[in-house]
Amino acid sequence: MDEASFLAGYNPRDYPAVAVTVDVVALTIRDGRLCVLLVERGQQPFAGHRALPGGFVRDETLDEAALRELAEETGLTPDTGDVLDRVHVEQLRTYGDPGRDPRMRIVSVAYLAFAPHLPEPVAGSDAARAYWVPVDEAKDLAFDHDQILADGLERARDKLEYTPLATAFVGTAFTISELRQVYAAVWGEELHAGNFHRKVLSVPGFVESTGETAARGGERGGPRARLYRAGDARLLHPALLRPTREDRIR
Amino acid sequence: MDEASFLAGYNPRDYPAVAVTVDVVALTIRDGRLCVLLVERGQQPFAGHRALPGGFVRDETLDEAALRELAEETGLTPDTGDVLDRVHVEQLRTYGDPGRDPRMRIVSVAYLAFAPHLPEPVAGSDAARAYWVPVDEAKDLAFDHDQILADGLERARDKLEYTPLATAFVGTAFTISELRQVYAAVWGEELHAGNFHRKVLSVPGFVESTGETAARGGERGGPRARLYRAGDARLLHPALLRPTREDRIR
DNA sequence: AGAATAGTGTCTTTGAGACATTATTTC
DNA sequence: GAAATAATGTCTCAAAGACACTATTCT
């Protein structure tokens, strides 16, 4: 390639025809269950199947594309509400097997999004056919989205151990009990309340007290819990390791 | 899009013009130092700068593209030697900021490769300008490759803690001391020999004895060490955590 | 009153790490 | 012989987890 062709950029015949999309695994907790945002596909291929929200990358960064797709599918716009400001978005991994889309070569950069509590997608908008589904009921998705979802869940479960990710699922002020329910929902197993409580408070920078107390006690009784907000730690040290299960080790 | 246009695939005007490449962060240990494979760029942009090996994705999976690029740049071909069979390849993350390549929108899927000891790239081949560079001397790389390398190193350092990755840097039979030198090279700090030894042997499935003993003792004296091979564990439990440094926590 | 929950105390076991020690080998 | 290294032993401290217990609030 000489100087002239450099200035002109690549020649389209120099590289294979590929399209790049983003797909978003958006997770939230509703009624104590971990849920993922899915859309109903109206067109071929996989018409009638459910899929992860996503679309072509435009003139924007990949992160911006993911946040934009999430906003469009949930019916939220960056200017109408600051709800989206509190959504945690991170890249998951990229899926590009030839044939994963029957129409053409599509390379999809998958993203994970964690939200405290997004409203139900508004009917009448672009998001008319989007809704939250408990992750254990999200099966038979279009394309390779079953795999993407599985990878996203594994990543989320891992990150709960080493990072304060769980605070992304609760409000700005929360009780230790609420935090524990996040862990229980994502990991799919109950945690010992007393040990969890002491453990969370012992990790520097995980949570800090607001000085406030919850307005009322638990639904079925119990004292009013103290309120906390997220601390400034980026990694939990020591980590909150999952209950050891030998079958996860090999 | 109706059924006819589905059968015809996407129309090129429906999606932005993008090219997809793979870039490979290939790591090995030479003379006790962690090294990365770099190529000298002969053309604009960044002519004369060093860069990570990479190229356009062809009609292949992304993993295959990464392994193919690595083979081409090192001058090894999958059929000439089984050396490449022992290379660990895994996806790192994807870089796609507009403007990261001045010529056009390029989305690059970065890969990590771990090799025990690849030969010096052969002159006269495509790999004529490729060579191994200690990672702390790999600076001012082309494009955003400084960032990609930094991300790759961070990933490698993390994976040493929780996985048997270190065994990918040594031969099929190795001593505990060799394994410790891998950790020291990647983490950039010495480890206590006695504690490391006991720790490695205490992790189920990390290493298993071959029953053999090294042909001779250390270079400057000492008994002949026992030989081990990689075990069947996929995760280390308990993990080999890095020496705690407070500045890594927040 | 009865039940559920928040928060704390205590004990045991495991593991990390500092340090010491012995045996073996090279120069 | 001197120095380095492999491998193991010992001790201390931190942390995980099981369990118990008290105080508070809801129905």
Automatic annotation (TrEMBL), chains A, B:
<dbReference type="InterPro" id="IPR020084">
    <property type="entry name" value="NUDIX_hydrolase_CS"/>
</dbReference>
<dbReference type="InterPro" id="IPR015797">
    <property type="entry name" value="NUDIX_hydrolase-like_dom_sf"/>
</dbReference>
<dbReference type="InterPro" id="IPR000086">
    <property type="entry name" value="NUDIX_hydrolase_dom"/>
</dbReference>
<dbReference type="Pfam" id="PF21906">
    <property type="entry name" value="WHD_NrtR"/>
</dbReference>
<dbReference type="InterPro" id="IPR036390">
    <property type="entry name" value="WH_DNA-bd_sf"/>
</dbReference>
<feature type="domain" description="Nudix hydrolase">
    <location>
        <begin position="19"/>
        <end position="155"/>
    </location>
</feature>
<dbReference type="Pfam" id="PF00293">
    <property type="entry name" value="NUDIX"/>
</dbReference>
<keyword id="KW-0378">Hydrolase</keyword>
<dbReference type="InterPro" id="IPR036388">
    <property type="entry name" value="WH-like_DNA-bd_sf"/>
</dbReference>
<dbReference type="InterPro" id="IPR054105">
    <property type="entry name" value="WHD_NrtR"/>
</dbReference>
<protein>
    <submittedName>
        <fullName>8-oxo-dGTP diphosphatase</fullName>
    </submittedName>
</protein>
<dbReference type="GO" id="GO:0016787">
    <property type="term" value="F:hydrolase activity"/>
</dbReference>
